[in-house]
Amino acid sequence: MSKPTRRTHRRAETEANDRALLEAAREVVAVDGAHASVAAIAARAGVGIGSLYRRYRTKEELFQRLIVIGLDQWLAAAEAGLAHDDPWDGLAHYVLAGIDIGQGSLGAIAGTIRVTDEIAEKNRRCDSAVDTLMARAHEAGVLRPDLTRTDLHLLIEQLGKSPMIDQLRQQDRTELVDAATQARARINAIALDGLRAGARRPLPGGPPDPALLSIRWERSAGNPGRSPTPDIGM
Cα 170 to the chain's mean position, in Å? Predict the structure, then answer.
């Protein structure tokens, strides 16, 4: 077996730095939102600002990469749901996976970046897969008929953050995080049951406009002719 070359080591180091940067960027964005600084991201990743800019020319380019990775995770979750033979199990898998991904954490940068063709296409594929998931569940009679994709993603966004867990971590009360996580799992189960067909009361009001989620991704200026991202609502 040939020994690793200096180029191999350099490539491995570059890939490790990139993973660290992306993880750090997501964590910093979750706290600081669109005001997240490249200095804070680089410091959290343990790399120099120069390393960040060698990989990403601008902060916008870094954030666009975060969106692409997030959409890949969402598509994988939807496709895994479609692989379930049971329509309800497939939908439940998607919802719980979405909660774990943390849909709302990137919403803070909505409207601050250009939606690229790659982002728009990946989002279209996600939406199509989720529509198929919901259609299967509706046809099987296991999903309440008045639920829309926008309803579903709004619910996932709400459940994607846990104020209690975040607070305990900020307080360094790590001994309580497991109990809070178990309590959160119960809340998720309660929410899932609310999606089942046979609810005693219909949902109030009319279906939400998908623009409720998507419009925030459209920049108010400097992005003419670009359609906003549909309602994945990360």
Answer: 22
